Amino acid sequence: MKNLLKITFVTVLALSVTGCADDLLDNSGVSGTSQPTQFITAEQLSEGAKTNLEIPAAFVGGIYAQMIQTGTGGTNLSHDDFGQKGYDIYGDMLCGDMALSVSTYGWYRSDITEFQAPLDFARGRNRMVWRYYFRILRSANTVIQSLGGNDAIPDNPDSQYAMGQAKAMRAHSYFYLTQYFQKEYNASEEILPLYDTPVNTNVAKATAGEIYDLMESDLRDAISLLNGFNRTAKNEINQDIARMLLAYVLGAKGGNDTEVATLTQQVINSGSYTIMPMGDVATTGFNDVNDASWMWGIDITANNGLDLVSWWGQVDAFSYSYAWAGDYKSIDASLYDAIPADDARKAQFFNNPASGRHLQPLFKFFASNQIGGTSQTVTADYVYMRIEEAYLLNAEANARAGNEPAARTSLKTFLANRVPDVSYVDGLSGSQLQNEIYTQTRIELWGEGKSYLAMKRNKATTVRGANHLSFVGEAIPYNDERMQFEIPQLEIQNNPFISSQND
């Protein structure tokens, strides 16, 4: 019981380290480099870990808790401020695969679907994205520092596993920051402040090359440190998740296709996860972390306190939600039309021409058996990563590397669980093969926050279908100004080393 109380206490402190109120951060800017004295420090954590080896793991649990916590973007009332899945929606909407087909309450419309935030650094959504990921970074740096710092290898396995997870989470946050705040990889471009320790001072922007070097180093260390780690819950990062994160980082950087293919093949070969069967695609609801295809996700319970302000509260019509009440999130009509009639995923979306073809995902995501939900309390789970991603990223990397037979094999293995006949893949090569893999990635991972990442990797041009409320039919390339967020105004005001977007 004493250990349980100690773990619970330190987990709460983990949430507090970077969850302080706006007035406590005013002296340091949005990055959150200030450390108020009433919150735990790396030194205090290190001292505690000497007498209780479970404390570092509990503190890592606090990092994971921030991923689902409301208000981590620094707002008190915003109903789109609820952690990682909130920014997954941002990405899906920016790239156009998720259409806001009806807007009654206005969430996402002006700042995201009409691109006002990416074009105006004073808009609050820029600050939310920035603040959330730098809060995660701060927590990860605190754990790393408490365990000896960036170059340390802890003596005991539990501390090694905590270090590995913290480094993976630091890389995960920097990865999303690079995707959301840089148009495309340019090693010499200065893009973000680089914090690899929990310092109390602001720093200037580092180059993309330096940020990517840190991410790669962190994830390679994580893969090594997590060797032998048998996690107790899927919200924890294990070796497979670290390998997939490294594959995503290298894929975004470009020029590393062979290693991306190797990393994803290692995950596939682990045999720890299986592709969701065709018969389950439109019947299971993608709401249970115990699904054999889920690699990384979290078991949401009533104790988490989620309700309308959650991913389910924004996207799922079978929840007490905006998606039920009048802010419909739908698959882009053109992407829906690209799904063959005999593809099991076609049935995930409600196609009712009489109601304007809103194409909501009524049969992909559903948290209950009743439109509008049976409860305001969210207990349906969050998915962060599925094994299908490994097959699709493996096919993509192999196709780019020129290993088209391997690319076709991975694509066919995946598609055999979605369509009755995969033989057409044998006739694809070159750009046709690459385009098919990209299309299948968009269809399979719709609504899961991966379409934006795929758009940037594939240097794609997006064209919104007829069920969007704005910019219908306009071609928007991946590196358009409207596809990235701006360094927020408050960061520029409070960080003396950054005086403009281009510093």
Q: Would you kindly provide a written description of the structure presented here, covering whatever features stand out?
A:
By secondary structure, this protein is mainly alpha-helical. The chain has two domains: 2-70 and 121-229 and 473-494, Alpha Horseshoe (Serine Threonine Protein Phosphatase 5, Tetratricopeptide repeat), CATH 1.25.40; 253-462, Serine Threonine Protein Phosphatase 5, Tetratricopeptide repeat (Alpha Horseshoe). 44% of the residues lie in helices and 7% in strands. The chain is built from 19 helices and eight strands. The chain has helices at residues 2-17, 22-25, 42-51, 55-66, 84-94, 109-113, 124-146, 157-181, 208-225, 239-253, 257-269, 311-315, 322-325, 333-337, 387-401, 404-415, 430-444, 451-457, 489-494; strands at 98-103, 190-193, 205-207, 294-298, 327-331, 382-386, 461-463, 475-477. A two-stranded antiparallel ribbon has the order 1-5. The chain is globular.
